[in-house]
Predict the structure.
Amino acid sequence: MHAFADQVYLLARRSVVRTARQPANVISPLLFPMLLLAVNAGGLKAETRLPGFPTTSFVAFALAVPFIQGALFATMNAGTDLARDIQTGFLNRLTLTPMRRLAVLGGQLGGVVTMGLVQAVVYLSVGLAVGVHVKAGPLGILVLLVFAVFVALGFGAVGALAALRTGSGEAVQGLFPVFFVFLFISSMNIPRNLMEITWFRDVATANPVSYLLECVRSLVITGWDGEALALGFGITAAITVISLAFASWALKVRMAR
Amino acid sequence: MKTLAVAQGVAWRTLHNVFTNPSLLIPSIVFPLFFFTAFAGGLSRVQNVPGFGFPDGYTAFQFVFVLLQSAAFGGVFTGFGIARDFESGFARRLLLAAPHRSGIVLGYGVAALARWAVTVSVLTAVAFAVGMHVGGSGVDLFGLYALGLILNVAALLWACGVAMRFRTMQAGPVMQMPVFLVLFFAPVYVPLSLLQGWIHGVAVVNPLTRVIEAGRGFLAGSPTEVGVAFGAAVALVLGFSLWALRGLRKAEAAG
């Protein structure tokens, strides 16, 4: 158990240092979601005048988006870094050591999880600075940060799976538009009950990203909403467990080659 | 004559590359459709906001923005091709071989227009297929597409200037981000009159606001600010022509 923890720690430290040393990997996930928040909060403020809109502050409503968009960046970063390890032969050299598969994956995702936490703190700080009030209080903020880390881990595992299956950083980057489609065809900009076009509402309802957004949104706008939290954490747990299981299997296949 | 021959060669090669490579062609067609779906489909309720006042519905309202966005990004995507040509060394050979180098910029411009023609045809067909209502006449629509065409050229010239200065694909964000920001700092989701706060102030001085508002006026059949919009669009083309040609000179000087 001690050896396993050492293995995870060493790889996680390498992952964190590597992420921190690439300004693009640090700045992009912080800057772009904030930019989109600023643009949408300004452009869609009029939406708060619709009957039934849950809040008078569009920033409070839209603050959930950076959390999920930041997780998409985490997916790309985790996948690209792991793909680079495959392309440079680092993963092959690891196979010559007694390192366990789960330690390799856990360590690789260390940088993503750290970055996920930093992102969440920055997004939340910006939100609070512009006057957003988290309805669920200090404990809600804590739950929000835990959720952000959890989402980063789940999406990071998806990125790792993509890298292990393809072995190509370019292929992982190519997934970004696909994830972006999931984000845009969700309740990102308007609550589902206010969507007028039926097919769009149906797609948004079937889209798991809607529930991740609504989980964050519930803590900020509503307070404690058990259903939203259960759906958000449940879906994140499912994404994490399934992705990690498949990524572990893909790593086994790749190590056996 | 030699300039036209160079332009023809560059345009043909660029178009051949784009239309024989799905990874280049598909995103430029799919992305505008995706934005159209996400905005017109997801946000249609916004037309019920008091004071919205666009008579042809939210699909038509967003169609104009997405059309102009596709025009701008059509130019930027062609700029990526220029940067790629410099990275591969092709552009340097082209600079050596071309008797009139301004024909190179002209060729890329023609290619950008042809590329956008395909994108906008698909976008228009989809918009009509989903029942978009158009209040304007044929002449009004011609005005809308003319604005898009000018914007496409302006964006291409901007991206061309960047590509010829940096001569690497890593300059992609420098080409893309300013265009993205200028587009989204305009009235994207609601008319200018409904914007509030800092974004209203930015949108008022943003030249693309006039272009987008005039485009929406054309589609609704009640053209507004036409002279200002065309003036702003042509001014962008003239300004970025100088930018692109000076970029060409810098690329020549770099050897």
Summary: The interface with chain A takes residues 27, 31, 34-35, 37-38, 41-46, 48-52, 181, 184-185, 187-190, 194-200 of chain B (CB under 8 Å). The two ends of chain B are 25 Å apart (CA to CA). The mean pLDDT of chain B is 91. Residues 57-88 of chain B form the longest helix (32 residues).
